[in-house]
Amino acid sequence: MPSPDDRLRALGIELPDPLSPVATYRMAKRHGDMLYLSGHVCFALDGSGVIAGKVGDDLSDEEGYQAARLTTIHLLATLRGELGSLDAVAAVLKVFAMVNVAPGFTGIPKIADGCTDLLVDVFGDDAGKPARAAVGMAELPLGAAVEIDLVAAVRP
Amino acid sequence: MPSPDDRLRALGIELPDPLSPVATYRMAKRHGDMLYLSGHVCFALDGSGVIAGKVGDDLSDEEGYQAARLTTIHLLATLRGELGSLDAVAAVLKVFAMVNVAPGFTGIPKIADGCTDLLVDVFGDDAGKPARAAVGMAELPLGAAVEIDLVAAVRP
Amino acid sequence: MPSPDDRLRALGIELPDPLSPVATYRMAKRHGDMLYLSGHVCFALDGSGVIAGKVGDDLSDEEGYQAARLTTIHLLATLRGELGSLDAVAAVLKVFAMVNVAPGFTGIPKIADGCTDLLVDVFGDDAGKPARAAVGMAELPLGAAVEIDLVAAVRP
After folding, report:
1. N or C: which end of chain A has fewer CB within 10 A?
2. What string of DSSP letters covers C37-98?
3. Is B24–A94 a contact, with Cβ atoms under 8 angstroms apart?
4. What chains are in contact with B, requiring at least 3 Cβ pairs below 8 Å?
5. How far apart (Å, rounded) are the C-alpha atoms in residues B16 and A12?
6. How close does chain A come to B152, measured CA to CA in Å?
7. What is the tally of structural domains in chain C?
8. For residue B138, is it within any domain?
9. How far apart are CA C114 and CA C92, in angstroms?
């Protein structure tokens, strides 16, 4: 079975450096075999800042999906940074996908799939497909289009 | 002491088939003795679709309460589907009740009681009364009036 | 190293009695060495009720920060009430800071620092600085300006 790193390579994804906190928190905190990741937002990989705006108005559905996928690339970078290798991820347990929405935008599950489709691609269906909640937020930090946190189980 | 199934019968509640995911996630994911449930929404039991709208505008307080109770019936169906029996639920640890609100609607705790009142009725006060957060969301998937997720402890 | 109680004294903070639930839930629920705290809101310490309003409109940034700090004082009171002593807190794992925002207000991380700055002051950087998500909510219970929940690890 290909490793998560093999799968990333096959997808043509090179993980960036892990994001740094913008305030008083850490990007991840471990307790036993559980790892809590902070809410990550969709920073562009070219360093031009956060993808901002409201899905259903400033961003199309496809752009929203891509923002969720981009956010997940940062989550993966944090996982690898914390654990040394994505091989140490036993399972993604729960994802909370928060989408910055224009009034009346309810197509939230398809936007959140930008996250969980990639998790399944990288970790496989068993380990990578999590429980999930997906919701439409009034506002997000920095005006980000998407914020996502997760809880993962870690190999001992 | 009556079992959760006895209590459901006494309440006249017959659990429906567990909901299926509408996108890339699973309805529940287990890790050790913890079970994470995805955000569930208030699908009508007659198959007519989701109870949609904003509490405080499209839905009255009582209709919002009933939507939270209905959502919880689906959460119970998922718990039974995953565990084989509600007897396997050791405790409901944390509930996150997300209410789709009209601007200015702040009576959120009473709406969320539609969930936790039923959990207490089914599992008793000790096991069934959880820690809880209840909030007012800008939008929810499919326009649902209520979305709820939870974390439960499972008997070994 | 000063104890959390020493640190509170040095900060001039006297913890109030723990808040009581306003509906069907408990303020905290323990499972093994994990303690889930309910969403707490910013009740004034003088008993005059909740600090209500939207940050970015009714409340300034500084007032929002103070509302998050006040909410955290209640979280600390619940932790001490549940555990007997703040010494029993091994670590704060995850904080979810929900800010009641005016449209367009995106300075959410600095408001949420009203919580995590105090946690670091009380428990130190290692134990007190958690993973965090911070978001802007459409509405909160009672119109509160801030609601925060957390998960803590408890000493055996």
Report:
1. N
2. EEEEE-B-TTSS-B-BS-BTTTB-HHHHHHHHHHHHHHHHHHHHHHHSSGGGEEEEEEEEEE
3. no
4. A, C
5. 43
6. 13
7. 1
8. yes
9. 15
pLDDT in tens, C21-79: 999 999 999 999 999 999 999 999 999 999 999 999 999 999 999 999 999 999 999 99
Tell me, yes or no, whether B149 lies in a domain.
yes
Q: Are B132 and C38 a contacting pair at CB < 8 A?
A: yes
pLDDT band at C91 (very low <50, low <70, confident <90, very high): very high
pLDDT single digits (tens) A72-85:
999 999 999 999 99
pTM, to two decimals: 0.98
Please name the member of C95, C106, C151 whose beta carbon is closest to the beta carbon of A139.
Answer: C106
Q: Is B66 inside any structural domain?
A: yes
Q: How far is B60 from chain A (nearest CA, A)?
A: 19
Measured between CB atoms, does B152 come within 8 Å of chain C? no
Give a yes or no: residue B131 inside a domain: yes
B95-153 pLDDT tens trace: 999 999 999 999 999 999 999 999 999 999 999 999 999 999 999 999 999 999 999 99
